[in-house]
């Protein structure tokens, strides 16, 4: 998710194959996780092989989390 977040902040898209490679998962497991993330509304609905993008809601939640994590203790 963080790879997708950074890519989107930098104006880049991420291919399914590259994201799965970065995660260290097998192609099959990576596709299953992407399906689950899409079903959960965290990545945009897609078909196998498409570019992967976080939803607006997922971007907002992750941004909020990172802002909170950056606060001084």
Layout: helices, strands, pairs:
Elements: H1 2-9, E1 14-15, H2 16-23, H3 27-39, E2 51-52, H4 56-69
Antiparallel strand pairs: 1-2
How would you describe the overall organization of this protein?
The chain is mainly α. It has helices at residues 2-9, 16-23, 27-39, 56-69; strands at 14-15, 51-52. Strands 1-2 form a two-stranded antiparallel ribbon. The chain is globular and about 40 Å long.
Top-tier CATH class: Mainly Alpha
Count of spatially separate domains = 1
The assembly state of the depicted protein chains is: single chain
What is the number of helices? 4
CATH superfamily: Winged helix-like DNA-binding domain superfamily/Winged helix DNA-binding domain
Number of strands: 2
Radius of gyration: 13 Å
Return the CATH architecture.
Answer: Orthogonal Bundle
Write down the secondary-structure element order.
HEHHEH
Judging from the principal axes of the Cα atoms, what is the shape? globular
Portion of residues in helices? 55-70%
Overall pLDDT score: 92
In whole angstroms, how far apart are the ends?
25 Å
The CATH topology label is: Arc Repressor Mutant, subunit A
Instruction: State the major sheet.
Output: 2 strands, antiparallel
Structural class: mainly alpha
Poorly predicted regions are none
Q: Strand content of the residues, in percent?
A: 5-15%
Strand order of the largest sheet: 1-2
């Amino acid at each position: 998710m963080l790879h997708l977040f950074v890519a989107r902040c930098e104006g880049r898209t991420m291919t399914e194959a590259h994201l799965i490679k970065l995660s260290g998962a097998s192609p099959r497991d990576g596709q299953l996780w992407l399906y689950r993330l899409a079903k959960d509304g965290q990545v945009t609905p897609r078909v196998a092989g498409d570019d992967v993008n976080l939803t607006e809601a997922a971007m907002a939640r992750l941004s909020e989390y990172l802002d909170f994590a950056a606060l001084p203790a």
